[in-house]
Predict the 3D structure of the following.
Amino acid sequence: MSRFAIRASLGVTAAAAVLTAAGYALFRPDPLPDRIRAGYRPGQTAGLTVEHPFDGTVFPPDLAAPLFRWRPDASGADVWLLDFRPPSGGPTLPFVTDAPLWKPRPADWRRVRRACSGGPATVTLIGASRSKPEQTLCSATLTFRFAPEPVGAPIFFRAVNLPFSEAVKDPSRISWHLGSVDRADAPPAVLEGLPVCGNCHSFSRDGTVLGLDVDYANDKGSYAVTPVTPVTDLTPDRLITWSAFRPEDGQQTFGLLSQVSPDGRYVVGTVKDRSVFLARPKLAFSQLFFPIQGILAVYDRQTRTFAALPGADNPEFVQSNPSWSPDGQTIVFARSRAYRLRNPQRKDAVLLRQEECEEFLKEGMTFRYDLYRIPFNGG
């Protein structure tokens, strides 16, 4: 077996991804906000669509300042007031900008967070003309709130070029990043140039064990489980294969949607599976994926053994997408009646041909799951 080494610098301090825009808008302690506010009548004007953030957004308290972005109709507005109203109903916090976007300075975002914590708050966006600021040209109002608890941990994610049909042509263009949400600079790439497909990933609760779906040696069931170090090498000795679970069945296993247990000892995943896996042409929704067959199996890292998970191993159902409770005592998974395609052309675990899946594509048939919870009890 040839050496397979991928280096990922996961143990470094990193930063969070943020949207970039034009420079910071300035808080201006002048009469302009009062003049703009004087001409505003709630509900009497519109003509403005807020693109970011969405109405009802919940911000983590440790999130770096986000970008506010809106799209006006042909209103002629050249000055904008963002008026933040705290949940307590106290004095508003006004900010003025000359462009239809605004990224708070860190100090201004801290002011908003202090004033608007503790319940739903609102921000009213008012567009006006500097020559006649008392005449409201367009407006919109959205609500938001701050969560009581911070994220408190970095986020590991992959950046995939879209559409999906292009990404699979060259997996090495996909990059993996690690960042903290409280940092305003872009998170660095910690893994690049992966020559094969890598997908589902998870960590133990303390972040010391990484599980990563990696297609190695033409084995779609290949999976990496490795301790996390400042530089992590994914070598063959740190790989398992879900295909090793009951190979005598003669049924292909893809092993998707696996997850490491909070204590890092176990991995639970979908085996003996079959999934609709179709690339779609539209950029906004470029992959149709869902499992229609499969059971849950558990890999024990101490004993190096595989076993089906009792209660989630009925082949009459598809049991998939397992998720551990924070204490590792229970598993929640999706379940539905297993489905056999009307026009199967191959025995592969993934269905890549549109003509095989006409009932879902042309006929619009739905496929629904229930969520089940099962005690783990050590397997």
The CA atoms of residues 1 and 217 lie 9 Å apart.
